[in-house]
Amino acid sequence: MHSTRHYRYGGEIDPQAQGAVNIREQLTREGFHFEKGPYRWTTHGPAARLFLTGPNTAHKFHPDSKKESEEFIVKALETAGKAPSHLRFATYTTRYNRCFWITVEGLERSYERADVEANRETTQTVITAKNVSRLKISGPGGEFELDGQKVASKASNPVFEKKNGRWSLTGRP
Asked: Does position 30 have pLDDT exceeding 90, yes or no?
């Protein structure tokens, strides 16, 4: 995820509308919860999602939907270019391993899904990781909680390694 707000639009009778439905259904399977309203589905929070449907509209914008879409974009632009404090990231390889301030440097099992959820809104950075064996956090040191385990680092850009189910700070680049 490289931006914190996403939206999709499609006309109700647009032959391409199924694409947005497929994305929304997959996000639901991934744990996103949508509020359904007439012709719109939304999530809230730092990674807001908006799915709009133009009523009785083919492959073009419905005027009411266009207005709502433009309002959503203006709000999203207020935080554009800023790293979010909350991340949800999935990868299957260390080739595509970075999301803002999190870098997955090692996997327990290559080519199997790895998930990272990280939050640094408080004085402590809280991270849950699945199928991750090495993790770099860009930014200042401090208090970290990795999968429920507290680990501190005074160094900037700390790198943590998981061995035998336990996370530790590593000095190796």
From this structure: no
